[in-house]
Design a protein that fits this description.
- Pfam families: TEX12.
- InterPro entries: TEX12.
- The protein has 131 residues and is mainly α.
- The chain has one domain.
- It has two helices and no strands.
- The longest helix has 90 residues.
- The protein starts with a helix and ends with a helix.
Length: 131
Amino acid sequence: MTQRGLESIKEESMAVRGTEMKRCQAKIREVENAPFAETSPAKKMKTQHFRSAAGDMAYGFETALAEANREVNGIFSKYSEVLRERAAVDASQLGELEDILTEARSLESHLKEKKEHLRRSLALISDKLQG
C-alpha cells in the first residue's frame, strides 16, 4: 500500500469518525434533555449506540491498520530478499575480481622474469658479437 493509500484511508477514517461523532453528540443532547430517568430505554440506547459506533469505527481503523502493516511487512521482506540476493551477487563478483587480480599479479611477475632473462640473453649475445 502506498503512502497515498494510507493517507486516503486516514482521511476516510477521519471523515467517518467526524460524522459518527456528530450523530452521537446530537443523540446525547437529545437524550440528556429528555424528561426520562437515567434507566430509561432512550438513555440505555444512547450508551449502546455510542459504544457501538465507537467500536465499529475502531474496528474499521484497526482492520485498515492491520492490512497496512501486512503490506508494509511484505514490502520490507521483499526489499530484504532483494538486498540479500544483491549482496550474494556482489560477494560472488568480488571473489571473481580477486581471482583476476591474483592471476594478473602472477602474469606480471612471470613477464618481469622473462624480460630479465631476455635482457641477460641479449647482453650475452652482444658480448659474443663484440668479442
